[in-house]
């Protein structure tokens, strides 16, 4: 493998002093990029995910066109349910549908948990191809959904405003819920280890729906599984945990084996630093909607954000995925503002 | 007017020592109650809202059937856009649709801001009728949507996951956004004052979408208008502000003229007390999905919640509206657990 020419994000995750913060954007590969939209018109979602050449092309687009400091694998968190034998349907422009939801012990027993790497071979092939094409330009981020978020989709069968069906399952059948969460966790650990073996330089775990949980319930159904993943992976590669909306867990997460924690925009950098005792790398937390502001405003806000987080132990990012209606030059302005920061400071 | 036989919530909002916390549930009048569902089959939504006899009947159902310590007017936050001349459509089981969205100065200029009381006369008639029928049994809560939340609906025309259209309006045309927010605020103040004059014993302001804002943006587009309403109303009746998800604003809100602050379940009672210096009455914060737990669990969790908030300066409630699929006996168990608390303590 080629040596990395830009290892800023890895040095940041090790807590080293850096010249400026690294920058990337969640969902940077996709929907707002005209070249992606052209591919979307030709190939359906799972063809794009399952064809290494397409996944590679899409992964590289923001590296070459927007100038981010890290690539993130183009894939989907729902490949895990697929690998476990669950059907996932995805219509363009609509959320995912899992027609056969998990509702009892039989359903859980029927889930497949072995041969994860074989079943998701196309992901490892994509990673190898991406690493070759990147040729050391920037690191590659692998990823997976967190167990609680995957649990939500398995039980609800689709997105939801309150995920009360998933919560009801967890509240009324706690033992069974833990069996399912543990199965997802085991598969996810195997999957992420395979990603690292294939070439991913770091991994991020997305708990998109953890913010729907009370702090007490987060400690029961989300945190233990996030920590298991982090503990299992941390000797393979740096791990970033992103339990969106779960700001309340920052003190606990800062003491975990994770190298970084993602935060959304509903907490000030100051408070996030205070709650983590400035002991861990934080990633975020620009409001994705703020990328719809005029470019001048974006640049001003980014500078302010870095001022508040500080240059070290900080990865500049959005607080959630980039919105489809963001003009590309606004995304570029976000990245440029971070890269220009060192001059100002 | 009859003297109140149960003024527990009013004493609590004044900060007095009480025998036990008062209890009610957001959205307590409606969707989970079989008698409400029967009415829904006969009359469409706006008929139910605009017919004082129906609004009265629905408002009283949870008082008589679930035993809450306060009634809340059956109505909708979108009567304000209607009073301002904006069409609101509501199909059963789907979110509201405002076909003519606000997108420029002309649209804002065209909004009606006078004769609010006349245009919403049916609300005041309903309040008078409810007060008569309650005959002092429990206090009546009036309410309105907060300016930012109404702004979201006026600009988006419907619900949204990220409200990025509303945010884009606020970020790219801040002066115009403030003109619109001020118009909504003025109308809302007039409306809430009319509710109090008609008989509402206290009022609550629902900022359902404030939690989508960063702390900095909350301070620009949400907080000033919440405070204006609270300042204008606080000499008429106690005001509860409920900016859902905006836990970060607790220190500022605790210093406001409001008598109480609503919080959702994503913050521990301990931290909420700490952030408000125990200086203001807090309302909440049971996860509505937790009402799907077994009754025994509900009762245990409610006791724990009161233990953590303390008996005084506390209104037991959910952290958001009750879900349609909650069994009535679970709602009753929630209320009973609060009422039984004094025995335990």
Q: Briefly note the structural class of the backbone of chain A.
A: alpha/beta
Backbone CA Rg of chain A: 19 Å
Strand content of chain A: 5-15%
Which sequence of SSEs, written as H and E, runs from N to C of chain A?
HHHHEHEEHHHEHHHEHHEHEHEHEHH
Strand order of the largest sheet of chain A: 1-4-5-6-7-8-9
Number of strands of chain A: 9
Sheet with the most strands, sense and barrel status of chain A? 7 strands, parallel
Number of domains of chain A: 1
**Average pLDDT over all residues of chain A:** 96
| Span of the ends, CA to CA of chain A | 35 Å
Work out the largest interface and the residue count of each chain: A-B, 32 and 32 residues
Are there runs of chain A of 5+ residues with pLDDT below 50, and where?
A: none
**Overall CATH class of chain A:** Alpha Beta
CATH architecture of chain A: Alpha-Beta Barrel
By oligomeric state, this entry counts as homodimer
Number of separate helices of chain A: 18
Helix amount of chain A? 40-55%
CATH topology of chain A: TIM Barrel
What general form of chain A does the structure show?
Answer: globular
Please explain how this structure is put together.
2 copies of one chain form a homodimer. The first copy, chain A, is an alpha/beta fold and 345 residues long. The first copy, chain A, is built from 18 helices and 9 strands. The longest helix of chain A has 25 residues, at 174-198. In chain A, helix 4 runs parallel beside helix 8 (121-134), helix 9 (147-156) packs across helix 10 (164-172) and helix 10 (164-172) packs across helix 11 (174-198). Helices cover 49% and strands 11% of the residues of chain A. Chain A has one domain: TIM Barrel (Alpha-Beta Barrel). Chain A has helices at 8-13, 34-42, 45-50, 52-65, 79-83, 105-109, 116-119, 121-134, 147-156, 164-172, 174-198, 215-221, 223-233, 250-254, 269-275, 295-309, 328-339, 341-344; strands spanning 71-72, 89-90, 96-97, 140-145, 202-207, 239-243, 260-262, 281-286, 314-318. The interface between A and B is medium-sized, with 32 and 32 residues.
